[in-house]
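Preliminary data (for renewal application), fe (ii) ion complex.
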Amino acid sequence: MAELLLSVVAEGIIGTLGSLAAKEIGLLWGVKDEVESLMSTVSTIKAVLLDAEEKHAAGNHAVKDWLGKLEDAMYDADDLLDEVSTEALQREIMTRDKKAKKSRVATGKMSRRQDRAETLVEAAVGVLNTADPFEKARLGDSVASQWLQGTITQPYDPSRDLPVPDRPARLSNIKLVSPSLMPKLGKAGSLQSRQAIVHSLVHIESWAIDLSWDIIARFGKQAAMPRDFFTDFVKVAQDEGRHFTLLAERLEGLGSFYGALPAHDGLWDSATATSTDLLARLAVEHCVHEARGLDVLPTTISRFRNGGDNETAELLERVIYPEEITHCAAGVKWFKYLCLGAENPAWNPGSLASPGGAGESEKTLEENEVIQKFHSIVRTYFRGPLKPPFNEEARKAAGFGPQWYEPLAVKEVNPRVTTIF
Ligand SMILES: [Fe+2]
Ligand SMILES: [Fe+2]
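Predicted structure:
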């Protein structure tokens, strides 16, 4: 039987060599001739082994001894080829990634012309129509700087309605699967798990960029929102672009790249469901999903730290976590504004109180009305209960207390809950 097993190993070696030759890895390393010669030798050995099987079966002890020695050599060769094959795969991934980066640079050079837009909404539509996520982040950062520095001054052209895409442009190289079919991410205890978690975060950030520009482009003019609304979501969009870029770089540092694993688009499903209602968009995407990110981030950070990956833990803790609180705060602030301040130009968005000396009981009444509206909208547009435990401290810093979200939670686990970071 040993020789039969060896002939199977030989078959495997031939397959590996053939695959290396087909990928021109041998050519790349200048050893193509050696790879082909080894294939020929192993092929001969395989033929001899099959022949030896018959002789051994007939009781030839010399052949049995020879097979024993050959066995060690074959397994050594097999181990070596496994290592070469793994190295080849890693080189292949790096080469693909380098090509993608080259194409990004070319796209970036071409689209520098797109950086100049007349209004913020026009620029936001330009970002939404940019497919490459790295270029999307770069263009978004440029537009945000132009708005914040006053180079772009007009939020929108009152006489012009620009078409906002139903679904932002995306590259097709990200394999999409249903949320329920996503592979398990693990707990950051292995490199594979850390890559999977960071990959999912990169994908979420890519959608977070689009969601921020979409709320500006889709609702800014339609709801005649004040200038501060545009500025708040421009800052969120700029943060999300930075989060995407930093996490994608970190993913490469972990030996992977964006697109190496499947992803799901649950976040855009809820954007589509709220595409005609700004209150619903603010509540579901910017209060429910963003706040869910705040709930899970501390555990994720601890897991990376326990897994020995302090670099990712520091990035999440020092850069992403504090900025996510401000994103949630923007959602809560403008939800309150639409409920209480849209009809009242003197309303202060930083407080629930109406101007003109509203007393405590009036403030409580107003807050209760806003919270009731929030519950009603979340129950209409968000399927299933919210999932505890909640990060009360971070949610409080974002401007909403337990009375906003606890009545929306039940004890069962809700697998449909998605997160924005
Ligand atoms: Fe983010
Ligand atoms: Fe965010």
